[in-house]
Amino acid sequence: MSQVLRGHAEDLYALELEELKKQDSGKLPANWTLSPQSVVTYLVGGKLKNGFEVTPKYIGNRRLMEIAVATLTTDRALLLYGLPGTAKSWVSEHLAAAISGNSGLIIQGTAGTSEESIRYGWNYARLLAEGPSEKALVETPVMRAMKEGKIVRIEELTRIGADVQDTLITILSEKSLPVPELNIEVQAVRGFNVIATANNRDKGVNDLSSALKRRFNTVILPVPDNIDEEIDIVRRRVESFEKVMEVPAEKPALQEIRRIVTIFRELRSGLTLDGKTKIKSPSGTLSTAEAISVVNNGMAMAGYFGDGRLTAEDLAAGITGAIIKDPVQDQVIWQEYLETVVKTREDWKDIYRACKQ
Ligand SMILES: Nc1ncnc2c1ncn2[C@@H]1O[C@H](COP(=O)(O)OP(=O)(O)OP(=O)(O)O)[C@@H](O)[C@H]1O
Ligand SMILES: [Mg+2]
């Protein structure tokens, strides 16, 4: 097994991508490695003509993925928008892997992201020694993607200051990046496009200017529709985590995952699943991604400090940690939920006991 902690999507799923390419009968947009139809199959999974099984990466509405992929064939860029933990980065990585065969051209947006990290920078030693030349130019992932006709990913676009965001406008509308110092311009090769992600929960974000907004097609990724879908997501992600981390634990029982997801969904929506009891929602987002972490944590506890079988005790610490983000208010809300909901469920006694400790 590779020593890399987390491989790129195009490496982890190389076999699937290769098989999809072999079976692909659709028309390829310029510089795409797969047809749009095959990219969607790669994302949502399916069976190929020769019986090869493609695993689903995104679990949810297929239509959303079709819109996302179709957008990338046009001159508009794609913005994946939504609550934290709704798979925006995950989808963006898989889209880039399937379309360009490279998900690594990426810029992490922060308040400190500068224009140079989007356009280009200089190797100052060289610049001083030799003066401005193409050799002294430091390419950014955006510039490389333009030259190679690939997808570049910009994570957390709205954390980038508004003035810096606007450097993207020319890139997206003119598909060109001028380098006045050298009196040249880099023109984007066909196949180039941008996938940005942004979440609508974080504080201190910078709204997109309307000029920039117009150059993006926004696809909103929702929280999973129903509990079974969410359980399926958690189960699949936990199983792949186990494989990578080689945790010495048994596969978690579906029942255990169902309970975690139930707790998360109920607290998130402020209502029990049967619709009978109103509860208060804690301050955190309680996303699917956090449910995945809680189960992963529990698996590690069970594997290393338990008998290898996931129990309520293994999960308790993780659940409490995920739910109580504000030590005062959330603590009260959680206690109330434990007493009014968890305690009354016949087969939840073990969770109640474990969480009370
Ligand atoms: N609908 C879904 N289908 C498949 N996986 C999902 C889904 N929703 C969440 N996940 C899983 O949740 C995890 C977290 O997703 P990701 O990091 O992409 O979230 P995000 O939307 O980028 O969040 P943030 O806004 O915090 O950056 C991923 O491991 C992903 O597999
Ligand atoms: Mg993200």
From TrEMBL:
InterPro entries: ATPase_dyneun-rel_AAA (IPR011704), CbbQ/NirQ/NorQ/GpvN (IPR050764), P-loop_NTPase (IPR027417)
Pfam families hit by this protein: AAA_5
Domain ATPase dynein-related AAA stretches: 78-216
GO molecular function, one term: ATP binding
Classification via Gene3D superfamilies: P-loop containing nucleotide triphosphate hydrolases
Matching SUPFAM superfamilies: P-loop containing nucleoside triphosphate hydrolases
PANTHER family for the chain: MAGNESIUM-CHELATASE SUBUNIT CHLD, MOXR FAMILY PROTEIN
Protein name stated in the entry: AAA domain (Dynein-related subfamily)
